[in-house]
Fold these 2 entries.
Entry 1:
Amino acid sequence: MPPVLRIYRFDPPALSIGFHQNPVKALDIDAVRNDGIDIVRRITGGRALLHDGELTYCIAAPAGSVLFDSGLDISFRMIAKVLVRAFRSVGVGAGLVRGCRPPGRTGLLSPCLSSVSRHEIAAAGRKLVGSAQRRTRSSVLQHGSILMRPASAAIVRYTGGDEESLGRRITSVYEEAGRDVGADEMRASLIEAFEEVFDAEWEAFEFGMRDLDDIERRRLAKAGEFEALLNEEVAV
C-alpha cells in the first residue's frame, strides 16, 4: 500500500482528545453534552482539540517508505517543510519553530494548542498547526489541525482556562493571510507542497463498498466502547 494523504474537516465541529486522556478528567462533560458536541479519541497522544474553523491533514505511510524509514525527527521536519511551503503559497509567513511551553497555568487542563512542540509551525510567534505522530512496527501516521479561522480557542469552554489568553498564543490562516483562504485553496496548496517535497504525484482514491461497510462497522464498535467508557467514568 502506498502512502495515503487525507485532508478533511469536521462537520459539525467536534472535540478530539489524546489517546491516553480520560475524557471525564480532560473535559467538562456537562458543557460538552449541553452544546451537543461530539467527542472522538485520536490514536495519537497530546491533549484536547476543538475542531472548528480548521482543516485537518493526515498522512499514513508503510514501512519501506521515506516517511517511515527516515525516523521520527526527520519525518516530522519533512512534513513541516511541506506545511511551511503550503502556507507561504497562500500568503502566510509561517516557519518552523522550536518547542516551548507557555509560562504559568494555561487553564484547567491545558488544551493542545496552548504550547508549541518540536517541528511545528507558527507565524509571528503564534501557533498555527497542532501536529502529532504515531509509529508502529509497520507504519507511521501523522496528522495535524490547521487553524483556518479564529475559532479553536473556544475550547476553553470545555477544558477551563481563558480564551483571550489562549488566543494570544495561537493564530489562523485568515489572520495571517489577511483574507479568507478557502478550504479548497488550502487543500490544493497542501497537495502541491507534498508533491514538490516528496517528488511524487497523488492519485485520487475511492473506497469500495466493502471498505465503507468495514469503516461503518468499526465506527459503531468504537462509538459504543467510548460511550460505555464515558458513562462508566461519569457514574464513578
Note: The beta strands are 4-8, 14-17, 38-41, 49-51, 54-62, 95-97, 120-123, 126-127, 129-135, 139-147.
Entry 2:
Amino acid sequence: MKTVRKAFDILKLIAEEPEYSYPLREISVPLKMNISTCNLLLKSLVEIGAVEQKSSRQGYSLGPLLYHLTRNGPYRKDISVAAELFLHGFTKKTGETILLSVYHRNQKKRIQIASADGNQAVNIRLQNLLLDDLYQSASGRLLTAYLPPDELNAVLTKYGYPKPDEWMGSDTKKGLERNLESIRKKGMIAIESRINALGLIAFPVRQGEKVVAVVGSPVPLFRFSREKKRLIKELKETAEKISRAISKQKTGNR
C-alpha cells in the first residue's frame, strides 16, 4: 500500500504540469522521497505508460496511459457537463467565480469538479481535481450537512470533530449537530472569512430529492457586503437550474 501511495504522489506532482519534463530531483525532493526509491518507481511507471521519459537523460512527464484513461471526459461528467452552461451564466451576470463540487466517498473530502472564473473562462477539470477537507469551506460544510448518517459517522471516525479554528462551535457532537441542522433548515450557507478576506456562499444541487453536488462562490469581502443579496439570489437560481438539468437527465424527461 505504501508503494502505491508513493507512486500516486509522483503522478499527482507530475500532473500539475503534465507537459513539463520533471528531472528526478524535482520529483524526489518535494515529495521527501529517497532518490533511489523514486527512481525505481518512475521506471515502473514508465514501463506501464503512466509516465513518459523521451530519453534516458530527459525528465519525466505524463504518459499516454493516463491520457487514455481520461478519454471519457471529466470526473462526474453527468453533473459537470450539464452544469457548464449555468456556471458560465452565473459569471456573466455577476463577474464572480463559481465552483461546482461533490463529495468523494473514498477520500471523504470535497472534490471540485468544475469552475467558471470571473473572466468567464469555464474550466471543467480533467486532471488535478482539487480535493480538500470538508470542514474548512462553505461548500464542504454544506456537503457535510447532507451526508447520510452512516457516511457522516465515517467522516467523524476518520477526522474527528472539527477543531474550533476550523469550524467554530462544531467541535462537539451537540454543536456539530446544531450547525448542520441550521444549514439544512436554511438550505444554503453564507459565511465571512476574515482570515481569507472572503465571503463564501454555497447552495445544494439536487438530483430528484438527493443532494449530489454544491455550487459555491468565493467573493472578496469588500464586494461581498455590497453584493450579498444579489449573489445569493443568482447562486440559488443557478443551483436550481443545474438541479433541473441533471434531474431530467436521470429520468430521461424533456
Note: The longest helix spans residues 221-251.
